[in-house]
Amino acid sequence: MCKICYKEVDISYGHHRCPASRCLYVAHVRCATDEAIWDGTIMLEGYDERSEEVVHEPWNLITDVVEQIIIRELMVASEIKHSYHDHNLRLTFSGKTKDDDSQCDGCTRPLSTPFSSCEQCKFFLHKVCAELPKQPPHPFHKHLLTLSNSHDEDNYSSCSACFRSYQGFGYGCYKGGCRFRIDIQCMLLSDILKHPSHEHSLFLVHNNKGTSCSACFRKLRSRDVAYRCMKRCDFSLDVGCATLSLTAWYKYDRHPLTLTYLDHYELSQLYCDLCEKKREPNRWFYYCVDCDNSLHLNCALGDLPYMKLGNKIEDIGHRHRLTVVKNIWNCPPCKVCRELCNGQALECKEFGCSFTIHWACCRSSYFWDSIW
Length: 372
Description:
This is DC1 domain-containing protein. It comes from Gossypium arboreum. Keywords: Repeat. InterPro entries: C1-like_sf, DC1, Vacuole_Formation_Reg. By secondary structure, this protein is mainly beta. Helices cover about 10% and strands about 25% of the residues. The chain is built from seven helices and 24 strands. The protein has a five-stranded antiparallel β-sheet with strand order 3-4-5-6-7. A four-stranded antiparallel β-sheet has the order 13-14-15-16. Strands 17-18-19-20 form a four-stranded antiparallel β-sheet. The longest helix is centred in the C-terminal third of the chain and has 7 residues, at about 365-370. The chain is globular and about 70 Å long. The N and C termini lie far apart (about 55 Å).
């Protein structure tokens, strides 16, 4: 099977295969030389890319292991130094932080064990995020990607795979004029995905022109990567839907809400319990079966799920820097749409300034027209 288009390869004809022993990776000639897959580089016969590695440099951003412990006969680094933080980070396997809204500074997702933390400041890293490789290949992009914690001058980046704005760590391509960037959650995806919304395995496809996402119904462009079923199911998932959290929390529900794919309610009962607006039939939503609470995806996750609370955003048309906040009880009105900023929003913390705005509103043309 071709690992790019997932169709049969007739090996009696020319094809590409991996020279490594026991590796069964093969591809059609046309698939392997597609411009979305191949950057035009030709390797000489007998080339071994492992010989190009600098063996004296660490493969990740852990610069020193200060202390180790033995767990089930395995040696584990319990205290480390990391390139992106000035203080030592100590590993935690159980328990919670003092702040329930704590987020990993690498992937900006809610904190879960095991994670490393700084005892002097609020800096957290999931163990997986602390050990991310510096420069790995990835099936989403044809060039090697480099790990970085830098962003645009506005202090955030946009993921080229899921199109969400994010802070924290990310991977970027720095070859020529390539502007490809990807957040950590998308980076952890592989070329084959098993998702609970579909019975068959889904395969990464680079050319998706003429198809639509089966979750959000967004029409995919030819340059969009997406996951598709190869068993004639006509099922596709764009990367944004493929990386949705399987659970979410609602302030009036003591149970976690579950990502739900089918709606059995009548059309007259399709409402979101948070914003009290209608839900579209057949669109994914979050649901609690115990309390019968249903929420839109954005209402459950927020408009800025991959921004870290307390971080600043630069230059979006306001004279001061704005802070990422999460409003739960005291929800001020948005400067643009006048609706309450319930949940994640951007707020000015300067004394005497009461400017608050939804993320979607600050990116709208109406907002920019109004400030000019």
